[in-house]
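Notebook entry, structure prediction.
Reason for the run: the old model in the group folder had no record of what sequence produced it. Starting over properly, with the input documented here first.
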Amino acid sequence: MQYKLYQRAQEFKNMLKSKASSLSFESIEQEKILFLSFFKWLAISLFIGITAGSAGALFSISIHFLTNLRLANSFLIWFLPLGGVVIVFLYRLAGIKKPQGTNLIIDAIRSPEPIPLLMSPLIYISSCLTHLFGGSAGREGAALQIGGSLGYHVGKVFKLDEKDLHLATMCGMAACFSALFGTPVTAAVFVMEIVTIGSMYYSALVPCTIASIVGKVIAGFFGIAPTSFHVNNLPSFEFVSILQIIILAAACAIISLLFCFVMHKANSLYEKYFSNSYIRILVGAGFILLLTRLVGIDYMGIGENILESAFSGVTRPESFLLKLIFTALTLGAGFKGGEIVPAFFVGATFGNFFGGLIGIDPSFAAAIGFLCVFCGVTNCPISTLLLSLEVFGEKGFLFYFLAIGVSYMLSGNSRIYEKQKILYAKHKLLFQDY
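New structure, fully documented this time:
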C-alpha cells in the first residue's frame, strides 16, 4: 500500500516537472518571438518614419509657402474654380471617381482593403491647389492619407502580411501627422484611438511611437516649429470655475455635433443637386467666392491669423460659424484637405466668444474650445488630453481633463469620419458597435 502511494506521488511529481518544463519552453519561445518582433518593427518603423516624416515635412513647407504666396497675391483666389477642375481631372485620370479620403485609410486598418499608391501624390497635389487658391481646409487629412499610403506600401516592400500591413499603415499616419504638427505623443496615440473607439490597437504602440518621434525629428531638421499656443489668465481650481468649464464644454459638444452635421449635410446636398463632379466643384468655388465678397478673405485657407488671435485677444462672435460654412462649402464640393484644423479654428473662436459671455478669460476659453470641439468630432479623448499637454503645456491640465470628458460624453455618436466605429456607449458599459 505504501509502495503504491509512493509510486503515485512520484508519477504526480514527474507530471508537474513535465508541465513546468513545457511552460518554461513556451515562455522562452514567446519571449523569443517578442524580441524578434521588436527588432523587426524597430527597423520597419524607422524606415517608415523617415519616409512618411519627410513627406509630411515637405507637405508642411509647401502649404506654408503656398499660403504666403496667396496672401501676398490676393488675385489668386479667382483661380479657385480652375484649381477645382484640375483636382477632379487628376482623380478621374487616376480612375478614382468617388474619393474616400481618410475614410479609406481608416477602413484599410480594419480590413484587407488595399490603399492605392497614387493616393499620396493625388492628395498632396490637390491639397496644395486647394490652399493656393483659398479653399477652406486643414492639413491633417492629407497627412493621414499621405502617411497611411506610404506606410502601407513600405510594408508591401517588406512583404508584410495583412495584419502587419495595418500596423505599417498606422506608422505612416503617425509619422506624417507628427511631422506636420510637432506633436509625437498625440500622433502615436491618435492613430491607435481613431479607428475603433473603445478598443485601442496597443500592438501599434511601439511602432507608432518610434515612427512619430522620427517624424518630429525630421520636421525639426527642416526648421518646422511644433504647434503651440500661449494661454493667458488661467483661473484657480474652485467651484465657480469648475461650473463655468462644464458649461463651456457642454456648449462645445453641441458645436461639435453641428460641425459634423453641417459637413456631412453639405456633402450629401452637393451630390444630390450636382451629380457631375466637375459641375459640383465649380458651383462650390462659386459659392466660396461669393461669400468672400460678403465677409472678406479671412476664412479662406487655414485662417491662422484669426486662430492665433483667439488666444491673444477677442474674436468676432460669428467667426466660428463663418469658418464652418466656408469649410463645408469647400470640402463638400470636392476640394481636398482636412477637417481637423477647421475644427480647431471653430472650437477656439467659439470658446473665445462664448467663454467671455460666461465669465471665462477669452484666451483660456479658446484653449478649452480648441480641445473640446476636436474631441467631439474625433471621439478621441485620450489623444485630446495628450494634445493639451503638447500644445498648451501642463498648466490648466485638470480643467482640460474635465472639459474633454464632458465634451466626449455629450457629443454622442457624431463623428467626422464615417468609417470610424464606436464600440461602447458613452453613458454606460454597453457594447453597441455603432
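Summary: The longest helix spans residues 2-72.
The old model has been moved to the deprecated folder.
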